């Protein structure tokens, strides 16, 4: 029997960057994100007694199954089974956007594999399970605006949808500065910030202090404040990264060009706010009425390297037909 699931990527407004416990994947701070509608991963899982090892296919190509296999060990432990699995994933994320993320991947794998192993986990339990694969996957179990409570142990570190969802028609524009594979992965990058950045403690304290204001700003549809807090969290994270040993940055020249265009638009009264993750691409938060104006402003520099999406739904079990589509 094969089980199919779909999970969407998310972009953090208040970032997760740094682990308090690497083994349990507990973050140093809570984080808040938006789940995106147009970028998602579909995953099929079959526990098959005839297999001698786990197998993992991504976008039609056989992959090294190590990370998937380690994650499945956790699922097998919970489901009290020992069978190996065939895992087949399709990333519905334009690879050029550099968004192919571990968030949608492990949220989809947690949803499909737990069900295939005979478990019927609650959304909270699924979120905790996805966390073991990748921190940002914790949040991709839920749609809309999501908070990941950092917690202090395995049971208390999980995500949930924010109690009051914004009613604003939020949109995210993804500007592809470079489609190359990340120079430094999030996992390695954040470990190096924790180990070597003299700004790390300040980053943790300042980022945690943005959580409550962001919850209020989202509940009150205060776009100017949502945007301000989003830029603060992103820039402070990148400031801590720049101060690492050896010094490092994810910024490319065109990254700054995108930030500058966003600031120019804001000076003209357009609500647009930029954020960046562990790579040079820029995501711009706005609302639906301003998407076309922003596209017009960005196109002379970035051409068709801009995608726009609204907020997406919870991770879910899907049918074979949806998977094959
Ligand atoms: C900058 O979740 O990819 O996107 O937990 O080590 O798998 P691991 O890292 P990952 O890191 C995401 C970092 C970020 C910010 C965020 O999504 O909150």
Gist?
The protein is an alpha+beta fold and 325 residues long. 37% of the residues lie in helices and 25% in strands.
Architecture blueprint of SSEs:
Elements: E1 2-14, E2 19-21, E3 26-27, E4 31-47, E5 55-58, E6 61-63, H1 66-79, E7 85-92, H2 102-116, H3 123-133, E8 145-148, E9 159-161, E10 170-175, H4 186-196, H5 200-208, H6 211-219, H7 223-242, H8 253-267, E11 273-276, E12 282-287, H9 291-302, E13 306-309, E14 316-318, H10 320-324
Parallel strand pairs: 5-7
Antiparallel strand pairs: 1-4, 1-14, 2-3, 4-7, 4-8, 5-6, 8-9, 10-12, 10-13, 11-12
Helix pairs in contact: 1-2, 2-3, 5-7, 6-7
Structural commentary:
There is one protein chain. A hairpin with a 4-residue loop joins strand 2 and strand 3 (26-27). The strands form three sheets. Strands 1, 4, 5, 6, 7, 8, 9 and 14 form an eight-stranded mixed sheet that branches. A four-stranded antiparallel sheet has the order 11-12-10-13. Strands 2-3 form a two-stranded antiparallel sheet. It is globular, with a radius of gyration of 19 Å. The protein has helices at 66-79, 102-116, 123-133, 186-196, 200-208, 211-219, 223-242, 253-267, 291-302, 320-324; strands at 2-14, 19-21, 26-27, 31-47, 55-58, 61-63, 85-92, 145-148, 159-161, 170-175, 273-276, 282-287, 306-309, 316-318. Helix content is 37%, strand content 25%. The chain is built from ten helices and 14 strands. It is α+β, with helices and mostly antiparallel strands. It binds ligand DP6. Ligand DP6 binds next to helix 4. Keywords: ATP-binding, Lipid biosynthesis, Lipid metabolism, Lyase, Nucleotide-binding. Belongs to the diphosphomevalonate decarboxylase family. It is an enzyme of class 4 (lyase).
